[in-house]
Amino acid sequence: xxxxxxxxxxxxxxxxxxxxxxxxxxxxxxxxxxxxxxxxxxxxxxxxxxxxxxxxxxxxxxxxxxxxxxxxxxxxxxxxxxxxxxxxxxxxxxxxxxxxxxxxxxxxxxxxxxxxxxxxxxxxxxxxxxxxxxxxxxxxxxxxxxxxxxxxxxxxxxxxxxxxxxxxxxxxxxxxxxxxxxxxxxxxxxxxxxxxxxxxxxxxxxxxxxxxxxxxxxxxxxxxxxxxxxxxxxxxxxxxxxxxxxxxxxxxxxxxxxxxxxxxxxxxxxxxxxxxxxx
Length: 279
Fold this sequence. Notes:
Mean pLDDT: 84
CATH class of the domain at 10-83: Alpha Beta
Shape: elongated
CATH architecture of the domain at 10-83: Roll
Number of strands: 12
Oligomer: single chain
CATH topology of the domain at 10-83: Ubiquitin-like (UB roll)
């Protein structure tokens, strides 16, 4: 019997927008470039072959029409790929995630422990497990409706993952500012409302109930306290609280500057209030 001939590859042109260019080769950034793809390749496969995780993509236009990740490329297709939270209204088009998460919850991977603590400081439900495997992270994220934060492209390219965010910055404070700006979270902050150690909500507690466990100087000077219901850690507005407040305010100012594309000085931020640990 004659051997079946392989289908010839298709050639499509790609244009990536905004921060998606950070993932691709320098010579292909901010321009239209041709790419040879297998005859049956989906647009998702082709995008990730360029180095861009699908979790970073919000909108795909092929020849001016919105498509989803399953679209099969054809020879001569013109593909425009836009990032998540791109600053224009795509409501009339096809969003790739039609059902946004009802609440903003995170799962920070093993390399983002510092960011996890800062997100908890800002009041966001943030799970963190050092040493968990990729499959376990994805299962938990899907079951609990969490956005996976990672610097691992391969993790974010896993097909089953629906909500993820690649973190570009290397230092925790810069990472916090990046996440706050990119996900437009500045209006959702609830500082000092979660335990840094176990992520559980904090609840106000009467001073008399914890007085025996307090250092004498704290017992004398402080009046407002809260306690974590899980690890039982007691929090108050001591020197550590002041340091963390200043750290959070700097991140908020940086996030505002990022959100405004670095245009001018960030507006002054008002003080936060709430109980926090002094030790």
